[in-house]
Amino acid sequence: MAGRITGTRLAVALAATLLAAVLGLTAGGDRSEAQSGLGLARIGTFDQPVHVAHVARKRKLLYVVEQPGTIRVLRKGRRLGRPLLNIRGRVRSGGEEGLLSVAFHPRFPKNRSFFVYYTNDAGNIQVDRYRTRKKQPKSATRAKPRSRRTVISIRHPGASNHNGGQLQFGPGGQLFLATGDGGGSGDPNGNAQNRRSLLGKLLRIKPKPRGGHRSPKSNPYVGRRGRNQIFSIGLRNPWRFSFDRRNGSLWIADVGQDRFEEINHRTLPRARGANFGWNCREGREPFGGAAPVCGQRSGFTNPVHVYGDPGCAVTGGYVARGRGAPRQLRGRYVYGDFCTGDIRSLHPANPSGSDQSTGLTIGALTSFGEGRRGKLYAASRSGAVHRIVSR
């Protein structure tokens, strides 16, 4: 979400973007038709939706995460009366805080486990594990509140922004999560380059059934100086990462400071131990407020694509794969920007050279989602969730 504008400018931008989204004024509003042959099909209206997810073996179900602390369920396109989960009492919500994503265990139909990433009532990042009820038909639509187990809690002192927020199982069935640098202009505490901090990182862990977690032995800092959970360092506020369904490669959209929004793409082996640069670099260039340790660092991983104004906060998405994805976008990485609402795509083989607008615009674009057979969804903070379709 928004991270390259701060203070009064952020408040004004948020208000203007939300108003435009509601009135349909942002670069054409939530257009149902586009010159590219793509369109937006609204699937429902929610309370500040920030993530859309599905379970591979639950073909009729779709889940929408609402920032204040609930996860709504759609069955065959119709919203159920009761949510999968309601943890509003545990969540601090507002601005960039809240319930931010959900991830279902790869063996969900068997162990009924899913995981949520949120900012708790103390403002810290927390990941909890829940289980759904045993009896059908509620087994995938109702959580068992007493099943909650804390997997990891990460102290996030001071600022309320830059919480990251994505949670996803990657190749091999291990849980990845992306954290922000802790907030404040320029990462004043130097968290992103600090290997003893879990902020500003991509983490990889193995949740334990009864709570807590282990770190895979192949993580880069196991047995070395640094936290065992760290997989990659040097992120500012990664707002959505994903894995390509075809080859497992990693895409990370990282919100910039003042000049550049960036998109990173690496194979998973090459992302292991990678340093994506912040706060030594912004985009591909040195950052003026770099931490002292930056003079000792080299071998930064450059983004594959950067852009600046008029955008202000990149929203990462997915490589379109499968029969459910619009044919015009298949094989292309789909992303957008929170402030402009412009939904764009690029080809992995030539990211900057192939970058183009889809012609679709969604005001206050908070997130994308991937559904059955690769169906693509886009959510607006103003409430609407759409499926991206071919016309």
Describe the structure.
The structure is a single chain. The chain is mainly beta and 391 residues long. The chain has one domain (7-390): Neuraminidase (6 Propeller). Helix content is 7%, strand content 37%. The protein contains four helices and 28 strands. The protein has helices spanning 7-23, 108-111, 268-271, 351-354, and strands spanning 38-45, 49-53, 61-66, 70-75, 78-79, 85-86, 99-104, 113-119, 125-132, 143-154, 166-169, 175-178, 202-207, 213-214, 230-232, 238-243, 250-254, 261-266, 281-282, 285-286, 305-307, 314-319, 333-337, 342-346, 356-361, 365-370, 376-380, 384-390. Strands 2, 3, 4, 5 and 6 form a five-stranded antiparallel sheet that branches. Strands 11, 12, 13, 14 and 15 form a five-stranded antiparallel sheet that branches. A hairpin with a 5-residue loop joins β11 and β12 (175-178). Residues 6-13 and 18-35 have low confidence and may be disordered.
Characteristics:
391 residues; mainly beta; Neuraminidase; 5-stranded antiparallel sheet; 4 helices; 7% helix; 37% strand
Number of strands: 28
Helix content: under 10%
Low-pLDDT runs: 6-13, 18-35
End-to-end distance, in Å?
A: 29 Å
Largest sheet, if any?
Answer: 5 strands, antiparallel
Oligomer: single chain
Number of helices: 4
Summed up, the domain count is 1
The CATH C-level name is Mainly Beta
Structural class: mainly beta
Silhouette: globular
Q: Using the CA coordinates, give the radius of gyration.
A: 19 Å
